[in-house]
Amino acid sequence: MDIDAAKAEVLRICAHLHGLGMLAAADGNVSYRLNDQCILITPAGRNKRLIAARDLAVLTLENSIISGSPSSERLMHLKVYATCAEAKVVVHAHPINAIAWSIAKPKLNELPIRSMPEAILGVGAIPIVPYARPGTEALAQGLEKIAPMHKALILARHGALSWGNSAEEAINGMERLEHVAKVLAVAASLGPLSELPEDEINSLLKLRQKMGSRSL
Ligand SMILES: [Zn+2]
Hints:
Layout: H1 3-19, E1 29-33, E2 38-41, E3 57-60, E4 65-67, H2 74-83, E5 89-93, H3 96-104, H4 117-123, E6 128-129, H5 137-143, E7 152-155, E8 159-164, H6 167-190, H7 198-211
Parallel strand pairs: 6-7
Antiparallel strand pairs: 1-2, 1-5, 2-3, 3-4, 5-8, 7-8
Helix pairs in contact: 2-5, 3-6, 4-7
The protein binds zinc ion.
């Protein structure tokens, strides 16, 4: 894909996530791996629904700025590209229900998805990465071990991150995570959460293993 097509793809992802209410004000950032050396990334401090192709920045994988004014949260993106060879697109957004779970249930280290077959089949698990200040090396470090294992994850008190080998996969991860968080929040407001039987959960996990690691 040439750089103009990649820029158009990034803008399309931004518009999609903004339409879903996941990118309020200047929140969130999207990046795209151009080649072995460089990524495209959205600019710092801008509303992602209002940016144009000329606003996108180019950055090396070692965090040297080639052009533009890249997102202040770029270390997180660079960590994913460095640790996940398959990553082509990285998306960071601020989905409401996903964040709310991490605020209301600070001891959780993953969403309680054992009641939802499509969550188990779609992403396997949705971990919650412990809080670190947005934009810091500490937050990027928090992803080092977890991002290679999980393509959709929650950043405590802050947002969520998803990645994939295509725009569609990265978007699927983000949509899946927030949809599951919303269903669980509604269910929890109605009564205690119930789980599927253990053998059914194990069968679903085996099925997921057979299907591969793609976010669905
Ligand atoms: Zn953020």
